[in-house]
Amino acid sequence: MRDAIAAHVHDGDTVAIEGFTHCISFAAGHEIIRQKRRDLTLARMTPDLVYDQMVAAGCAKKLIFSWLGNPGVGSLHAIRRRTEPAALAAGETLLEMEEYSHHGMVGRYVAGAHRLPFYPLRSYSESDLPKVNPLIRQVESPYGDGKIWAVPPLNPDVAIIHAQRADEEGNVQMWGLLGCQKEAAFAAKRVIAVVEEIVPTSVIRADPNRTIVPGLIVNAVVHEPFGAHPSYVQGDYDRDNAFYREWDTISRDPAATEAWLKEWVYDLPDRAAYVAKFGASYFKGLTPPSAPSGVVDYGDYR
Amino acid sequence: MSEQKPASRNELMVVAAARALEGKRVCFVGVGLPNIAVNLAKRTVAPQMELVYEAGVFGANPARLPLSIGDPTIVTGSTATVSMHDLFGLYLQGGRIDVGFLGGAQIDKYGNLNTTVIGDYAAPKTRLPGSGGACEIAINAKEIMVIMRQSTRSFVSTLDFRTSPGHLGGAAASATLRREQGWGGSGPSVVVTDLAVYGFNSDGEMELRSIHPGATLDEVKSTIGWEIRTPANVPETPSPTAEELRLIREELDPTGAYV
Question: A84, A159, B30, B86 - which has most CB atoms within 10 Å?
Answer without folding.
Answer: A159
